[in-house]
Amino acid sequence: MSEFIKSKAAIAWGPNQSLSVEEVDVMMPKKGEVMVKITATGVCHTDAFTLSGADPEGIFPAILGHEGAGVVYAVGDGVTSVEVGDHVIPLYTAECGECKMCTSGKTNLCSAVRETQGKGLMPDGTTRFFKDGQPIYHYMGTSTFSEYTVLPEISLAKVNKAASLEEICLLGCGVTTGMGAVTNTAKVQVGDTVAIFGLGGIGLSAIIGAKMAGASRIIGIDINTSKFDLATKLGATDLVNPKDFDKPIQAVIVEMTDGGVDYSFECIGNVDVMRSALECCHKGWGESVIIGVAGAGQEISTRPFQLVTGRVWRGSAFGGVKGRSQLPEIVERYMAGEFALNDFITHTMGLEDINDAFDLMHEGKSIRTVIHY
Ligand code: NAD
Ligand code: AHE
Ligand code: ZN
Predict the structure, then answer these.
(1) Are residues 214 and 293 located together in one domain of the fold?
(2) What's the CA gap between 129 and 63, in Å, rounded?
(3) Which stretches make up the Enoyl reductase (ER) domain (predicted)?
C-alpha cells in the first residue's frame, strides 16, 4: 500500500468553473520523484488560459499552478540531486541533461518527461493526486496550487535557501520568461530598439531584460494604461496605447522608429497582435519573438513578403532558460540586487481566495498575485 499525505489544493473540476479549494490525498514520491511543500505560488495568465478551456492540452479535473517555490518534503528512491529541506523551484520545462534536446545545445525544451506531462501524468503514466479515491491530473508537471506536490527530480531547480520563496516563485515562470526571451532568445544588444506588446508580468519582465541588455529604446504597448507607471519605473522609454490611434499599431511603431524596431516581443497571446509585432520590425533584420500563448485553433498570418524582406519570426518558452543549470544563477543575480521581484507582487492572499486572484487578473488590476499556504 502506498502512503499518502493530506494536502490543501485548488481543484479545477472543469473548464470555466471556479477553482474549488479542497483537501486531497497526495501519494508519496516514487523512484526518481520528489514531494515538495509549496510555500508560495504566483498565478500566471497561462493558468487562466488553461482554465478557460482554450488549451489543447487542458485536461480536467486537474490541479493547476506552475509558478511556485517551496521546500523538499520527501524524496523517492534513487533521488540524489536534492534532499529534504532543500529550497526548490518547480520546473515546467525539465532538464534531464541527456535527451536529444538537452544535448543539442540549441534549446531548453527537454523531452524526457514532456509527453506524460502534457497528459497530466507522472512519467510512469499515473497521478499522485486523489480526491476520495478519484485520480486528479497534474498540470504542466508542477501543480503548485497544492500545498504538497510531486515532481520528477529532473523538474526541480535547487536554489539558495537565503532567497525569499514568496518572491522567487515568480522566477518559476513569469520573470524568467520575459527577461530570458530578451537576453537569451533574442540576444538584444546595447543600442538596439525594442517593442514590447502587453505589459503584464511577462511584458514587464521583458522590459527588465531590455534595460539590462542596454536597449536604446524600449517601447511598451498596452491597452490598459494603468500598467504604464511600473513600465516606466522598470525602464520603458516610450508607452503607447493602440486605442489612441486610428491606424494599425505597427504603422505607429514604424513611424516612431525610422522604419521599425530591431526586436519585438508579443506578451499577450493574441494572434492579431503577433502579426503587428512582426510587422513593426525593421526591414532586413528585425526579429519578433512570440511569448504569448494562443488558444486551440488559432493561427498566425502575415504576408510572406514580410519574411522575404528579412524579418524573422520566432518563439520562446521559459525564456530559453535551462532550469536546473541556469535558474539557480538567476536567483543569485536577484539576490545580488540586479533586478527586483517585489515590484511585480501587487497582491498576496491565501489559497482559499485563489479565485479572487483570477478575477484581479481578468480585470487588469494585478501584475502578479502570490498565493501563500
Ligand atoms: P497578463 O494578463 O498579466 O498580461 C497581458 C497584458 O496584455 C495585459 O496588461 C493586457 O492589458 C495586455 N493586452 C491585452 N490585449 C492587448 C492588446 N490587444 N494590445 C495590447 N495589450 C494588450 O498576462 P501574463 O501573465 O503577462 O502572460 C502574457 C502571455 O504570456 C500569456 O499569453 C501567457 O500565457 C504567456 N506566457 C508564455 C510563457 C512562455 O514561456 N512562452 C510563459 C508565461 C506566460
Ligand atoms: N499547452 C499549450 C501550449 C502552452 C505553452 O505554450 N506553454 C509554454 C509555457 S506558458 C507558461 O506560462 C511553454 O513553455 N511551452 C513549451 C512546452 O513544452 O509546453 C498548447 O498549445 O498545447
Ligand atoms: Zn506561466
Answers:
(1) yes
(2) 8
(3) 14-371
Q: What single-letter DSSP state applies at residue 363?
A: T
Ligand showing the shortest atom-to-Cα distance for residue 270: 1
Q: Ligand 2 pocket: which of 116, 173, 271, 293 to mutate (most atoms <8 Å of CB)?
A: 293
Q: Is 326 left (phi over 0), alpha (psi -120 to 50) or beta?
A: alpha
Which ligand 1 atom lies nearest to the CA of residue 198? 7
Residues 163 and 182 in one domain: no
Q: State whether 57 and 87 are in the same domain.
A: yes
| Residues catalogued as catalytic | 44-46, 66-67, 96, 99, 102, 110, 114, 173, 368
228-282 pLDDT, tens digit per residue, is 999 999 999 999 999 999 999 999 999 999 999 999 999 999 999 999 999 999 9
pLDDT digits (tens, 9 = 90+) for 305-323: 999 999 999 999 999 999 9
- Asked if the structure places residue 327 within a domain, the reply is no
What is the per-residue pLDDT across 67-86, written as a single tens digit (0 to 9) for each?
999 999 999 999 999 999 99
pTM summary value? 0.98
Asked whether the beta carbons of 205 and 175 are under 8 A apart, the reply is: yes
Q: Does one domain contain both 139 and 255? A: no
φ/ψ (deg, to 5) at 111: -105, 0
Average pLDDT over residues 209-215: 98
Ligand 2, atom 9: nearest CA belongs to which residue? 317
Domain identity same for 258 and 355: no
Same domain for 127 and 16:
yes
* CA–CA gap between residue 207 and residue 267 (Å, rounded): 11
Calculate how far, in angstroms, residue 175's C-alpha sits from the geometric centre of ligand 3: 9
